[in-house]
């Protein structure tokens, strides 16, 4: 929409408001001439008053204006929850380590939790008599495992952005103007969202379902519990539905909290720029203020008995603005999506101009840079909800930082970690807290950030987010300490009803985590220096490492693993876990391992790894790393790729396929690439699959390039590993949210068949490289999710190979449903690069996922490995490579110990190299090695501190 339609929308809404008010006054209140004895007593003039028949209603309405939402005073004495489902048995969880969330997250109780009638009835020592009177009490032995409150996701679009995404259920953003406070997320809430069960499997029990951010005042939000109810309705899933929801004028007291979503900045560009959106806010709040003032004036007269002066007037109301009037009365928990200093400043000024509180700022990439500004918010400092690692995807988030949660907490600002589901899968909300902890947020605050703090920000802390007597019976029993990577719920209860982890389901959870260390809070690195730098440089600290070309001595090394093409998984552990020893690196190459190296070394620098390891660096595949700087800024990327299925490439190219090389689009030194390098991911293979966020991917997605993430430019030694790595093809369906139809899948396959059999002339890039692919000279990577399409491709491969007498190196990327035909894929010697590493049923083609524990024994990853497929793991966004080792650790831990550390390492190094046919290229000089302080590659304890690069003849100290 452009600015003029915004104006139109405004004109329309102001017109309808005028109409509405006109209608109201037309229905004149019946008044009677009454001699009111009560008024007589209080009114000295003793005259006759016109008291309206509905005076009592009006007076109670006026009294209600002063009411503020709060729980009933006897709330904690309740015997049963209003959400109790009759027939639910009581549950006693015994022998647990209970993190209650109370006392600022520092309380840990060893003992039992008793759940009865949907309510927590006891914590700690539960005497027998408390439950033996119950006929059917289910006893669960936690065996010393951790128990926490159910997780609360403060920012979610579950139900309104449901999956698999379908055109018929896009109910998250309105196209009807920047100001739409009258919309309600409950009206678009799809009770059949596949993601509910997944989120519960991650321990998430309550979420705030927000409308999207494409509107400034975007509509009313609601707190939902994710349990399926016997009523099957959205309303029955809402926690404490506001009494106004069904229009009842009279209701039980006290009043309940309402919720509203606001957004500012870039996501409102459809309606104008920042100045436009702030004016639309001021206009809207002014409308609401006029009504509030009119109500107050009216009530002042009514309460003073001045009915004569109110004659012919009705109580001023507007169904369009009523929620904003409630905002001005402090009865609404406002969630505001705002990223930058400029936006936060405008918003804080707005709160002071109109005097309303904001409960929470969301995303808020620059909030950590302006804590004092946040404290000037009218009505008190808001909670700030951030992502752990999703940064730099738009200008607004370019200065976002992993250190933000800690910096905010140090400034006394409550921190929330949130999913923005489906941006991140709500199931892994605890992973956000784990990362926040890794980057410096103290453990109790990390746990609070997904429990009590979001519950408070939503006004629900009396029920959820904290385990206390009288709270809702939403409980998670974990297989490890929840801040450990891979922490998985064994059991989850909502309202006292078991949601996952029933004995009868017979799913194994937590195997391979028997070690005591899994039950403790992980030790994490010290980031004081990096955090101070980040603040000093306002989010953009220099990222270039210090380089040493001479000798580097690494001390206290516990394990050294190197590439070895002949060994299993292409990896060999030279120095197994044992007594820490010394390693000398000279010119980027290991020259000596062992205590004896010490003598005679004139090291330029000494690094103490404190029992850490040296291991091959990791590789990332699949994102536009090195092709774009900021996802949503087309000017920072390569631009739109011509799609031969949707129009002809420029004739001057002389190639109907328009095949181009990613090497020609590379840009070095992007922040994402440098951060990947610092995270031990020194190699990347990128294609042109996702050249711009807005355009759908082209069918022929170019020839990928493999490069070094830490290099400064393309001409630097070792910067480009392999100019032409693989040929990429994307098989896509019409996007559910797109109005432009995609060429049919069958047509795409027909084109592919033609190009591979004997397609374009050899003197065109398309002709030449498709022929090379058909001959098996370079791999063909096909982005595909559906098992049905993969089956077709499998047959196509055989057809081509028979026709050409060749062996094609085929790789499926994405491959969500590959597990359904794992044996066949293995038989056809097709490789798989799974993305995401842990599956999500995003669209229809992805829907048949193997969710993993606690929902299924199997995961796609282990099913494919067991079938004998060479598997690697990829990603799609350039912010993700930084998390490679943690993502893989998660995927490996979810297999119940069936993936060893070495196999996990192979998934993001040697297996990728094998599938992309670049083993020899990476291994030429042994390949880069990364030194980790304190722990191994896949632990939260460790920190990459150096990259030894034989090809470049140097060591980067990070
Ligand atoms: C919790 O932390 C806040 C902020 O640091 C502090 O003001 C409050 O006193 C603490 N409460 C308890 C019970 O420790
Ligand atoms: C409206 O909701 C209130 C409680 O919030 C309830 O008491 C009342 O029965 C509801 N009315 C209707 C018509 O559903
Ligand atoms: C899960 O695996 C265990 C151990 O192999 C097995 O006993 C159980 O039956 C499996 N559960 C299901 C649902 O297949």
From TrEMBL:
PANTHER family: ALPHA-D-RIBOSE 1-METHYLPHOSPHONATE 5-TRIPHOSPHATE DIPHOSPHATASE. This is Composite domain of metallo-dependent hydrolase. One of its GO terms (molecular function) is hydrolase activity, acting on carbon-nitrogen (but not peptide) bonds. Residues 404-495 form the Amidohydrolase-related domain. Pfam families: Amidohydro_1. InterPro entries: Amidohydro-rel (IPR006680), Metal-dep_hydrolase_composite (IPR011059), Metal_Hydrolase (IPR032466), Metallo-dep_Hydrolase (IPR051781). It comes from Daedalea quercina L-15889. The keyword Hydrolase applies. Keywords: Hydrolase.
């Amino acid at each position: 929409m452009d600015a003029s339609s915004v104006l139109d929308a405004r004109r329309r809404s102001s017109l309808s408001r005028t109409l509405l008010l006109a209608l109201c006054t037309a229905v004149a209140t019946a008044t009677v001439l009454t001699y009111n004895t009560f008024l007589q007593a209080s009114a000295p003039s003793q005259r006759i008053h016109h008291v309206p028949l509905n005076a009592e209603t009006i007076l109670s309405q006026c009294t209600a204006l002063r009411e503020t939402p709060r729980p009933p005073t006897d709330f904690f004495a309740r015997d049963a929850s209003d959400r109790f489902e009759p027939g639910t048995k009581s549950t006693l969880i015994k022998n647990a380590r209970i993190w209650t969330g109370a006392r600022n997250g520092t309380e840990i109780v060893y003992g039992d939790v008793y759940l009865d009638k949907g309510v927590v009835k006891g914590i700690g020592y539960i005497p027998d008599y408390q439950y033996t009177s119950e006929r059917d009490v289910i006893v669960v032995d936690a065996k010393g495992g951790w128990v926490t409150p159910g997780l609360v996701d403060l920012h979610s679009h579950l139900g309104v952005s449901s999956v698999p995404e379908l055109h018929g259920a896009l109910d998250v953003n309105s196209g009807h103007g920047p100001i739409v406070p009258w919309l309600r997320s409950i009206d678009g809430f799809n009770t059949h969202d596949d993601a509910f069960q997944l989120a519960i499997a991650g321990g998430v029990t309550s979420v705030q379902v927000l409308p999207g951010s494409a509107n400034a005042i975007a509509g009313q939000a609601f707190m939902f519990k994710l349990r399926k109810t016997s009523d099957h309705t959205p309303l029955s899933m809402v926690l404490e539905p506001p009494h106004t929801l069904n229009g009842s004028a009279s209701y039980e007291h006290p009043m309940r909290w309402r919720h509203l979503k606001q957004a500012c900045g870039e996501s409102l560009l459809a309606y104008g720029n920042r100045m436009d959106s702030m004016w639309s806010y001021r206009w809207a709040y002014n409308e609401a203020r006029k009504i509030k003032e009119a109500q107050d004036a009216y009530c002042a007269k009514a309460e003073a008995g001045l009915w004569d002066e109110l004659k012919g007037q009705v109580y001023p109301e507007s169904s369009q603005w009523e929620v904003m009037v409630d905002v001005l009365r402090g009865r609404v928990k406002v969630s505001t999506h705002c990223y930058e200093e400029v936006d936060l400043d405008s918003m804080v000024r707005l709160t002071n101009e109109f005097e309303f509180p904001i409960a929470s700022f969301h995303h808020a990439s620059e909030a950590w840079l302006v804590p004092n500004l946040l404290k000037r918010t009218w009505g008190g400092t808001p909670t700030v909800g951030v992502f752990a690692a999703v940064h730099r995807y738009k200008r607004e988030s370019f200065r976002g930082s992993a250190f933000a949660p800690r910096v905010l907490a140090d400034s006394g600002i409550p921190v929330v970690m949130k999913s923005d589901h489906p941006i991140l899968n709500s199931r892994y909300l605890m992973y956000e807290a784990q990362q926040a902890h890794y980057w410096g947020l103290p453990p109790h605050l990390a746990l609070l950030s997904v429990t009590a703090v979001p519950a408070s920000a939503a006004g629900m802390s009396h029920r959820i987010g904290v385990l206390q007597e009288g709270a809702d019976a939403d409980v998670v029993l974990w297989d490890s300490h929840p801040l450990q990577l891979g922490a998985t719920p064994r059991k989850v209860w909502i309202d006292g009803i078991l949601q996952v982890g029933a004995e009868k389901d017979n799913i194994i959870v937590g195997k391979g985590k028997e070690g005591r260390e899994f039950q403790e809070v992980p030790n994490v690195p010290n980031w004081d220096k990096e955090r101070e730098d980040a603040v000093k440089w306002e989010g953009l600290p220099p990222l270039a490492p210090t380089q040493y070309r001479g000798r580097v001595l690494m001390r206290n090394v516990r394990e050294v693993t190197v590439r070895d093409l002949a060994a299993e998984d292409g990896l060999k552990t030279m120095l197994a876990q044992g007594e820490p020893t010394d390693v000398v690196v000279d010119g980027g190459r290991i020259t000596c391992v062992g205590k004896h190296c010490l003598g005679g070394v004139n090291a330029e620098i000494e690094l103490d790894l404190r029992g850490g390891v040296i291991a091959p660096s990791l590789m990332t595949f699949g994102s536009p790393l090195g092709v774009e700087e900021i996802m949503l800024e087309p000017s920072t990327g390569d631009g739109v790729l011509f799609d031969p299925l949707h129009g002809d490439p420029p004739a001057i190219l002389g190639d109907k396929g328009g095949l181009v090389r990613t090497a020609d689009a590379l840009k070095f030194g992007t922040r994402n690439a440098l951060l990947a390098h610092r995270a031990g991911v020194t190699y990347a293979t990128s294609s042109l699959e996702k050249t711009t966020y807005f355009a759908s991917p082209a069918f022929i997605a170019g020839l990928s390039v493999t490069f070094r993430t830490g290099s400064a430019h393309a001409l630097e030694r070792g910067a480009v590993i392999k100019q032409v790595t693989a040929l990429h093809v994307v098989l896509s369906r019409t996007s559910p949210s797109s109005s432009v139809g995609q060429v049919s899948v069958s047509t795409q396959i027909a084109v592919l068949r033609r190009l591979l059999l004997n397609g374009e002339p050899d003197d065109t890039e398309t002709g030449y490289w498709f022929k090379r692919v058909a001959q098996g000279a370079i791999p063909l990577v096909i982005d595909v999710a559906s098992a049905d399409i993969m089956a077709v491709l499998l047959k196509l491969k055989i057809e081509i190979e028979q026709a050409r007498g060749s062996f094609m190196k085929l790789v499926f990327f994405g491959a969500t449903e590959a597990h359904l035909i794992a044996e066949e894929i293995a038989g056809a010697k097709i490789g798989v690069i799974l993305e995401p590493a842990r599956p999500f049923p995003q669209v229809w083609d992805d829907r048949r996922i193997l969710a993993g524990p606690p929902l299924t024994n199997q995961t796609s990853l282990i099913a494919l490995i067991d079938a004998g497929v060479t598997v690697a793991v990829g990603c799609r966004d350039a912010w993700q490579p930084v998390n490679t080792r943690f993502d893989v650790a998660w995927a490996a831990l979810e297999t119940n110990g069936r993936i060893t550390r070495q196999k996990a390492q192979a998934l993001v190094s040697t297996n990728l190299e094998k599938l992309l046919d670049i083993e020899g290229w990476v291994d030429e000089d042994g390949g880069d090695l990364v030194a980790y302080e304190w722990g191994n590659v896949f632990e939260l304890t460790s920190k990459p501190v150096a990259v030894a690069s034989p090809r470049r003849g140097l060591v980067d100290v990070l």
